[in-house]
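Run folding on both entries below.
>entry_1
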Amino acid sequence: MALLITTKCINCDMCDPECPNEAITMGDEFYEINPDRCTECKGHYDKPTCQSVCPITNCIITDPEHIESDDELLDKFVTLQGLA
């Protein structure tokens, strides 16, 4: 599942540099996550680093529009890293 930054975002700039897949960018009003690049840090870390550094509770959540299995996320990781 890709992650989603909610409107609770305060644009603190903590999540963007933590994303190993460069999936986080500044949107019109607050940071956004590109679901095509988000692997929930599978292949990199044990848990999503953006959620770990975010100072706002429940600001970064599972994106209900982009449900993916762990295997699908790992496949995306392999593709993004050019390992396939």
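>entry_2
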Amino acid sequence: MEYMSCPEAAKKWGISERRVQILCRDNRIPGVSKLGYMWLIPKDAEKPIDGRTKQGKELHHE
């Protein structure tokens, strides 16, 4: 399997690198693993729905 780093995922998904790290830490991205201090995110991973927003909450409850 091919992986991308937090900065790569942040650029791909249009969110901050810190937000990607939080999503990894909270197990919100399937297939993620940690190598030392670096998160490995599957290249084909989808950006998780943002449960912090009204839109994200509506999508989450459907």
